[in-house]
Amino acid sequence: MIVRKVLALRGPNLWTRVPVLEAWLDLAGRQGRQTGEIPGFLDRLIRSFASADSGLDEVTERLKQERDLEGVVALLILELQRRSGSDVAFLAWRPPAEDGVARLAVQYQEEEVGRAALALALSLVGSALDDRPFDLRTELERLRTLTQQVRIGPNSAPIAAAARARGIPFRRLNTDSLIQFGHGVRQRRFQIAFTDRTSAIAESISNDKDLTKEMLRAVGVPVPQGRPVSDVEDAWAAALEVGLPVVIKPCDADHGDGITLNLNTREQLTAAYAAALEVSSNIMVERFAPGAHHRMLVAGDRVIAAARRDSAQVIGDGIHSIAELVEEVNRDPRRGDDASSPLRKFPLDPIALGVLADQGFQLDSIPPPGARVFIRRNSHLRDGGNNVDVTDQVHPEVAARVLDATRVIGLDLAGLDVVAEDIGRPLEEQGGVILEVNASPWLRQHLRPWHDPPQPIGEAILTSLYPEGDDGRIPLIAVTGTSGKTTTTRLIAHLFAEAGRVVGMSTTDGIYVADRRIETGDCSGPQSARTVLLNPLVEVAVLETAQGGILREGLAFDRSHVTVVTNLGEGDHLELRGIDTLEELARVKRTTVEVVAAEGAAVLKADDPLVAAMADHCPGEVIWFARDAEHPVIVRHRNEGGRAVFVRDGAIVLARGLEEESLVLLADVPITHQGRVGFQVENVLATAGAAWSIGLSRESIRSGLASFAGDPIQMPARFNLFEVKGATVVIDFPHNAMALEALIDTAESLPHTRRVLVFAGCNRRDLDVVRQGEVIGDGFDRVILYEDKGNQDRQDGELNILLKQGLRGRPRIKELVEVADENLAIEQALRELEPGDLLIIGVEAIERSLEYVQQWMEINL
C-alpha cells in the first residue's frame, strides 16, 4: 500500500466537525478484496495486539467485523491513537475509485500523533499481509511517549477542556502549550499558568521572598519571622534571633527548591545552608511554623482550590521493615518516577536516610504498629507527597488573607503556601502563616488529589478570563459560493467599517485589517482566516471561504454567526482534489452552513437549487435572497414567518413573514448601476441579509450600500466601469463560464453598438475552458486573446487552444485577435476603441492590469 497524500483537516471539514487526518491510500491492486479472503491476515493482526496486551477482545471483535482493507487501516489508526492516550472516536472511509485510491478520515487530537499512528498502522498491516513479525508493544510505547511529549501540558489542558465545554474557541499557538482563547479583540492567552495579564513586576516580586514578606506584612497578612543571611555563621545567628526550629530557603527560588524545614541544630542548619547554596546565593532563615502545609489556588478574586500536602510517610505494622513498607506504597500504579504520573514514588535516597536517622530509624527498622515514620520532612509532590482536597474546609478569614496577599503582590493567578494546624480556623488564632505567593502555580496537585474528586479549577480559571455567558467570539461572517464571493465579502466589510467597527477581512485579493492590506495574493483559505482571527484589533471578521482551503485544511473556525452562499450555478474548479460533480462541490461549500451558530443565520440564494438544499443543514435561521420577490422558496418561507431579502419596485426589501420594509432604492446603490447589473444586485441582497441578520442598523446598512462606489480601490477588477472616448469600459475578473454569462446578461442593459472582450482562458477542466469559448462566441463581436502563461499542469498557450475550440462556429463573434501579452492586449483594445463600444477587459494580473489601464488613460485622455 502506498500513501498518495495526507491532509490534516484542522477544522470542520467535508467529513465531520472534528479535526481529522485524510489519507489517500493506494491499495496497490488489493481494492475490492475482502480481508477474510487474505489467508491468515486477521489472525496475524490479532496476534500483534495480543503480544502488546492492548485491549484484545475489543480490537478482535472490531477487526473481524471490518471487511475492507481500507477500513482496517482506518480502524487501526484510531485504535492506536486511543491506546496512546488520545481521546478520539471518528473514522470514515470511501472505497477506492477507478485509480485504486481509497480515502480515509480519522480523528486526531495531536497531528503529530495522528501521523505517527497512520505510519504505524500501515506498517502493522504490511507485516500482517507479508507474514512478518511485528513488535507492537514497543511501537505503542513509542507512540505513548510521543503523545506525552506533544500534547497540551497538564496546566493548560484543564483550561482548554473547560473552553471546549463552554464553546469558547481556542487555538494552540506553539508547542509549549501557549493557547489563544477567543478571537480578535476578545482574545485572551494562557501558557503554563500565566495569563496575558500576569504582571512581570508581580512575578518578580513573588520571586523575591524577602520583599514578598514585607509586602504581605504591610497589609496585615501573618508571615513567619526571619531575614536574609550572608553566610552560614549569619544563618546560625538569625536562627537564634527568631528561635529554633527554623527553615532555610533560597530567597529567589520556586517550587520548593533548596528548602529544608524544622532545623533544630547547628549541624542540621549547616547542611541545609549548603543545600540552599546549590540553588541560589541569596539565602533566608525563617522561624519554622508548625502545622500542615496547604497550597491555595487563586484565580481573579476567588480562592478556587485548596489542598493539604502530606509528606511521604508510612505507618508501621510491627511486621514489615521501613524498606518493605515503602516498597508496598510504591507499587501503587498511580505512583511513578516523573511528572507523567499522578503521584511520585517515595524516594529512598541519602535525604530519606537522614530523615529516618533523625527519627531513630534505619531502612531495615521495623516500626511498631501505628507508628508514623516520615520519609521526607517536606511535602513536595515530587518527593512522594500526597494531596488531600480541603477547599470546602477553608475558613472565610483564611481565604480573605490569601486574597489580600495575592492582591498586594499583583498577581491574577497565584499559588500560595499556607501553614496552619487547622485550615478551618483563622490563621491568627493558631499562629498560622502564609509562606509564599507563587506565580505560575502548578495546577496538577488540585486536579489529582490523593483521596478526593478534583476541584473544577479549569472552569474556575476560565471564568476569571471569560465570565459566564462570554464566549470570547467576535461577529464572524463567512462568504462562499461560485461567483460574487469577493465582492460580497468586501461589501459586508465596508458596511461594518462604515458603522465604526474594526474589520478584519480575508479575500482572494489579500488580508485587510482596518482597511490596511497586511497580506497580498489569494487569501481565501484557512491560514489567512486564522491570521484575521489572531489580530487583537479585529472586532468583526469577514472571511471569504474558498473550496480549496476547505478541502486542503478544513475551516479555520468552528462556528460562524453568519454564512453567505452567493450561488453555485455550474460550479467551478471541478475534478480537483476529488471533487468531480456539482453535488460534491455543494457538499464542500455546505460545510460553512453546517457551522452556523444556533443563534446565527445562513443567507442563501433561493433560486439556486443546490444552494437552497443547504437550508436543511443549517443549525440556525435561514434568510433567503433573490431578485424575484415571488420565487416559491421565498413565498413559502415568508408564509412560515421567515425572513427574506428581495427586489420589489426598484428597491431592496427586507421581509419578515408577511411584513415588508423597503431598505434602499437600487438607484442609490452605486455598484448596481441603477439595478442594471444583475449579479451585483444579488451581491447587494446577500450583503443586506448578512448585515440584517447580525443586527446592523437599517441606517448603517443603507449608508454603507450608498457609499460603496465599487471603484478599483474598493473592489479591484469587480465590474469597474469607465467612460473612455465615448465608449464604455468594464474591468472584471470573469474566471468561469458562469461569470462570463453574468457579464453578457449585464451587457444587454448597457448602451453599446459593439461588444469587445479582452481575455485569456482560465485554468479549469478542458470541457469548462471550451465552454468559456462557447459563451464568449455567443456574446461578443470582437475578442482579443492574450497568451495564457504559467498555469499549473498546462503548457503556455494550451488554454487558448481550448478556448478557440469553443469559439469556432459560434454565431456572434466576427473577429478574433491574438496578442502575446496581457498589457499589450489591453493597450490594443483601448487604442482601437470606437464610440459606442462596450469593452470588457477580463484581467488575470489584477493589480498590474488596473495600474496599466489607469496610466494609459492618464496619458491618452
From TrEMBL:
Reactions catalysed: [L-4-(L-arginin-2-N-yl)aspartate](n)-L-aspartate + L-arginine + ATP = [L-4-(L-arginin-2-N-yl)aspartate](n+1) + ADP + phosphate + H(+); [L-4-(L-arginin-2-N-yl)aspartate](n) + L-aspartate + ATP = [L-4-(L-arginin-2-N-yl)aspartate](n)-L-aspartate + ADP + phosphate + H(+)
Enzyme nomenclature, EC number: 6.3.2.29, 6.3.2.30
Keyword Ligase: yes
Keyword vocabulary terms for this entry: ATP-binding, Ligase, Nucleotide-binding
Class of the enzyme per the UniProt entry, highest EC level: ligase
Subunit structure: Homodimer.
The protein's role, per its UniProt record: Catalyzes the ATP-dependent polymerization of arginine and aspartate to multi-L-arginyl-poly-L-aspartic acid (cyanophycin; a water-insoluble reserve polymer).
Protein name per UniProt: Cyanophycin synthetase
